[in-house]
Amino acid sequence: MKKIAILGSGYVGKAAASFWKYNGQWVSVSTRKPERIPELMETANAVFILTEDRLKSLKSLLNGQDVLLICVAPDPTDSYRDTYLHTALQVTEVLRDNPEVKQIIYVSSTSVYGNHNGSLVGMIR
Question: Which residue ranges form the domains of the chain, and what is each CATH number?
């Protein structure tokens, strides 16, 4: 049995948790909203609340895990930089002291445009 941590329990994270738990894996999920704990306990074995002390929260979530699925999304008040870059930097820092995590899976709904040599892409005029 693998121990899988899911950072971000929106649509994708919740569906992945449900699938893995149904297939016999130990699944821990994270959320920023304590009121979601009862709902998430239906699809996961453990729920971790991400607090203002994000590094401490991530350390707790990743302790003893084999796999990390990252599927975060910004809240309306968050910037993309805070959501994606800061999350990546914080996960990198926590993983330095957590060699048990052997696999990281990153899922994003953000569009990817390829290399356009610094030109703007996807701009609506």
Answer: 3-106 (3.40.50.720)
